[in-house]
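Q: I have 426 residues here and want to know how they pack in 3D. Can you give me a structure?
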Amino acid sequence: MDAREQKGLEIAARARIEKRGETWLVPSQSSKGTYRVTMDDTGPRCTCPDFELRGVRCKHGYAVEIVMQRETVTETSPDGSSQATVTETAAVRVTYPQNWPAYNQAQTQEKALFCGLLRDLAVSVPEPEQRRGRPRIPIADAIFCGGFKVYSTVSSRRFMTDLREAHTAGLVSKPWHFNSVLNCIDDETLTPVLNDLVTASAASLRSVESTFAVDSTGFGVQQYYRPFTAKYGGQELESRDWLKLDAIVGTKTNVIAAASVTDRNANDSPQFAPLMQVASQNFDIQTVAADRAYGSRVNVAMAAHLGASPYIALRSNARGVNTRSPGRSLDSTAWRWLWHMYNLRRDDFLAKYHARSNVESTFSAMKRVFDDTLRSKGRVARTNELRLKAIAFNIVCVIHSMFELGVETPTFACTQMAEPAHKLNH
């Protein structure tokens, strides 16, 4: 029994599956919508992305088959009366192995190790020279305060107790005011530094990561927007605004090798090449997986140029030969290889493409631990807070890898020179 059949058993046992005419409505496990399953001579056909990609039975198809196979059995009681009973298929709980001793050690020591590693990462940023003006908060203190505040997941005022303890431990030079901590997060001059620190915080796992996945996810903010739509009678609908985090993630440790923050309407595909270029500076990328949103010739060529095998799902209108450039260049060769893998060797393709599922696990873990909503209200503060979430998540991944994979204590190095911060006066 494979994983999809097991999930089908769980859906059939717990979810409400309705039949409307010849169509079965199966609720989604990851969203509020439903998928439509129809039966034909070849088996169940579903509208979910998994069936669209693989073309074979998905978990929703399994669930419908299980519901259809439920039989009503008539049993005769000892006194001669009859009663009807319906046999139900019980759900199978899927479990995964876990090194619990190492996991327990990592969890119980995480906060202390996090503070030490965050401080080491912060002091790796060169301190800019100040020639005039009021004394400024040291860059190391600004990065530490911002990262530790995001890690704590509490408000800036409640965070003051943690900051005073950090000052007592010698991790910061002064227990700064909570407004100063917010100014650190809202400083635009720290944005390029935080971008570099996302990569620097993950670099220590280069020895255990060679397979990566690219995807994006959204983090809600405190503001709302009102899009005008003609679909619902030409009225305005109020929706929570959100920012998008594009990331390339190691599939073994879930560490974020590189990340970028964009607006909610930004396209995913143009983010692929910059993420690959940044991640390749610290990691030996041998395989990269991505969904069809990144399935362009430019992205495939970039992956091949960096020596990685691209397992990127293709759109239905993708062609194996580029009529504009039919030559045997590296770009066209990589595209033809991917097109043949995707269309003619689908099982081999899916065996590698399945690594893309780990990026979903990364985003899910990141949102569960550090919340899926940004507390900051300003544009710069929101983007910096999201980058700090990625840095904090990377340090947590490093800590767990130290216990579970035997990774040595990292030595961080930042290549970005910080500019004099105009919001860090005190």
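Q: Anything worth noting?
A: Confidence is low (pLDDT under 50) at residues 86-94. The chain has three domains: 3-86, 100-193+374-404, 208-369.
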